[in-house]
Amino acid sequence: MEGVSRSLHTLWTITKHEFALYWVSPIAYIVGGVWLFFSSLFFSLNLNQLNQSGGNAFFGGGMSPNDALSSTLNTMAFLLIFLAPGLTMRLVSEEIRSGTHELLLTSPVHDWEVIVGKWLAVWGVFTVFILISLIYPALLLWRGTPDRTQILTAYLGYWIWAGAVLAIGVLASALTQYQLVAFIISVVTTVAMFIANAFGNLITQPTLGEVFRQLTLTAHYQETMLNGTLKWVDLAYFIGLIALCLFLATQFLNSRRWRA
Amino acid sequence: MIQVEGLTKYYGNYRAIDSLSFHADAGEIVGFLGPNGAGKTTTMRILTGYMPPSEGKATIAGFDVLEESLEVRRHIGYLPETVPLYKEMSVWQYVDYMAALHGMTGRERGDRVEEVLDKVGMTERAASMIDSLSKGMRQRVGLAQALVHRPKVLILDEPTIGLDPRQVREVRELIREVGKERTVLLSTHILSEVSQLCSRILVINQGHIVAEDDPETLGSRLQGQQRFYVRVGNADPEVVAQTIRGLANVVEAYPAERGVEVTSAKEKDARPIVSQTIVGQGWDLLELKPLGMSMEDIFMELTTEDYIAEMEGEMEEEEE
């Protein structure tokens, strides 16, 4: 029990520290600004299209209000691949470059607590942006009657999606002391996972093809939660992916001790 | 408090430290003296749990650095050579963060941060951004960070490097004060620093401890103040040496390089009586200079011996 409460204290300490650091540098404002700018832009364009498709009636006609939101989140899920590394790239790299990791690695904290704390912090930062964007579904609910379940799963999915993409970013950052390298590794890895089903489609062997399809990020969000279906397997996929990335990041941070 | 036995560390094939053994007791300030690349930082990094040793064993306050790393880290305050600071934080935030990482909470933590900032004389700059601090101040913040959790053992890697003379004195004062109640292991390549601060000195070179002594003994060995050289104009050095040998406070005198090398008795200065005697004899005193051994000399000496021993060892191995 003492160990658990100690870990919670450490996690809280590191998360709070990292979260606060984000708001004293311009990077969080830039990433958040860009994300909110594009999401609001796409949302208004979609709303406009919705109005046109439904003739004069606001939120009526062929295109459902839910489509306006899910189409926006779909685009933003893809954009996140390029925005998230902007937030995560410095997380571990900068500590290694400036030597502060020596402080962390000689403090009475576990390596995993450092990694998980950092990930929680950056996820927390991103959660702030997502919370601001709740204004879009609020608008839909205010002026129309959208499918509430779909809005809920689409948003929950996006939140977890962000957690996973950020976890990949944390892993990339733990690999190198160069932020730019971390950025590139993160983008390449995530894009590869985004389009993994393309490889799957190339493989004629059905089982192997299905494996690739199941590994694809989009198979567990765009094709399911975004459309209003919530399945355990999709949640498990993202949680597993996050756990794997954070585990590997911890191993890489730990290996600094041996390679030092 | 610190117990090290047969500690060895390889970087690839390079052996940074080689079966190092030493100890430091509670309340002792032990100095690690050696040139750059001697293995001081490597040893300290192993002791602080930053990296594991290749071979050997080290314990801090009874905890094994490899097996019980977290316990060890709880009992250690560490100031690395380049003070790791978060530049975008204020002094207070930084020290508070480090205290929190050491598990301190609530009011106790706040009080302790205040106390330790006062101790290092940074109370007035508590709200300043670390980025705006001078090098000396950063060093003090680093020291505050190392002290905040009241560690039993303090490990300081080159704590005065890069400071101006006044800052050096301030930091030394600080170390002396905090060293009263805890074990301190500090590294330096400045001789005067260890002789002023430390109760015991370990001279380390190429990963070996080449000498271990208290500062008086080592200092006299290093500074060699009881030996001097006299040159006399119109007399045979042999005769001069014989005359000097009979004087009070003189231990030894023998001819060397057209003059005489004299060794004074311990803590006695034989120079007045020697010069008076020479002049009294009607000889011309041309030169009198102390034969000091500089830091460089002692290193050359220690490392050469070491080198020779190693060469011999290798030759023996080859013969086998």
What does this structure look like?
The complex is a heterodimer of chains A (260) and B (320). Chain A is mostly helical and 260 residues long. Helix content of chain A is 80%, strand content 0%. In chain A, helix 6 packs antiparallel against helix 8, helix 8 packs across helix 9 and helix 10 (196-202) packs antiparallel against helix 11. The longest helix of chain A is centred in the first third of the chain and has 28 residues, at 26-53. The radius of gyration of chain A is 20 Å and the shape is globular. The model of chain A is unreliable at 55-60 (pLDDT under 50). Chain B has two domains: 2-221, Rossmann fold (3-Layer(aba) Sandwich), CATH 3.40.50; 225-290, 2-Layer Sandwich (Alpha-Beta Plaits), CATH 3.30.70.100. The model of chain B has no long low-confidence stretch (mean pLDDT 84). Chain B is α/β, with parallel strands linked by helices. Chain B is 39% helix and 27% strand. The longest helix of chain B has 25 residues, at 295-319. Chain B starts with a strand and ends with a helix. Chain B is elongated. Chain A binds chain B through residues 6, 9-10, 13-14, 17, 21, 24-25, 98-110, 257-258, 260, and chain B through 45, 48-52, 70-71, 73-74, 76, 78, 80, 82, 84-89, 97-98, 100-103, 105, 145.
